[in-house]
Design brief:
Blueprint (H helix, E strand, L loop, with lengths): L2 H9 L5 H6 L2 H5 L6 H50 L8 H26 L23 H22 L7 H24 L46 H6 L7 H8 L4
Helix pairs in contact: 4-5, 4-6, 5-7, 6-7
């Protein structure tokens, strides 16, 4: 049995096979520490374990993250679609034009995520039914409430994609696509913030984000001033206030935190 010939054959259909197996190279090295006969007997089982981890669990994790992201994109697309259909809610002109473009971006995100999931032999989740008035009853009649939710959704999207990036490192193509969506969500968030006369970045745990209590979970942990192994970056030098320290770094949200936020609208 030629292990490397097997991998070369797999490489013909999966050019990233070496990246998938690189972190598991010790599994192959370990075979050299036992007798040749025993090693050859162990090879089929070792390969089965290695490839199951590389293509089984990894793919399942990627699909889980993609469907997680799809639910967020469904929420955003649905939100903007309903808002644009609400007569008199969004002023004509630049404001409406911006929201229309953002809605189309979110629609494109939905389609690319569904297509990617299907290409990995997964099943995209069905679009949930959202109730945006559950905790914000005037969201589609009060322009400021609408913008508040728009900011909260975009900020959630940015932090959610960041929180799941590590779970996509087994698939370079999917990770790249997720990062491309992540940066656009950040641009959306900054634009909506400017429409609300806010700073383009998050400062603290929502204190300066101009949002009501119901939206505060979106900003949990953003007051963090510990970064890169440094316990308190405000001590790095003059001018590094808590405001600068928290605004200079964006924090990820866990899947559980995002699920709790989304549940406010289900």
């Amino acid at each position: 049995m030629n292990i490397f010939k097997i991998i070369e054959d797999i490489e013909k259909v999966d050019p990233e096979v070496y990246n998938r197996l690189d972190s598991r190279r010790n599994a192959f090295k370990g075979l050299g520490t036992i007798g040749k006969k025993a090693a050859m007997a162990a090879v089929p089982f070792a390969l089965a374990s290695v490839f199951q981890k590389a293509y089984g669990q990894g793919n399942n994790t990627v699909l889980e993250v993609l469907n997680f992201a799809l639910k967020l994109e469904y929420l955003e697309r649905n939100f903007y679609t309903q808002a644009l259909a609400s007569s008199g809610l969004i002023p004509e002109g630049a404001a409406r034009g911006a929201i229309q473009k953002i809605q189309m971006h979110e629609a494109a995100h939905v389609e690319i995520l569904k297509t990617t999931i299907q290409s990995l032999n997964g099943t995209p989740i069905s679009e949930p039914t959202f109730n945006f008035g559950k905790n914000f009853p005037d969201w589609n009649t009060n322009y400021q409430t609408f913008l508040t939710l728009a900011q909260a959704f975009e900020d959630t999207g940015v932090r959610a994609y960041k929180g799941q990036a590590a779970n996509l490192i087994s698939n370079d193509a999917v990770l790249t696509a997720a990062l491309q969506i992540h940066s656009v969500e950040a641009r959306h968030a900054a634009h909506i913030r400017r429409m609300r006369n806010n700073q383009g970045w998050i400062v603290g745990a929502g204190a300066n984000s101009n949002v009501p209590a119901g939206a505060q979970p979106v900003y949990a942990g953003e007051e963090n001033v510990a970064q890169g192994g440094i316990n308190d970056i405000t001590k790095l030098g003059a001018g590094y206030s808590a405001e600068i320290a928290s605004g200079a770094f964006d924090e990820p949200l866990t899947k559980e935190q995002v699920a709790a936020i989304v549940s406010l609208f289900e």
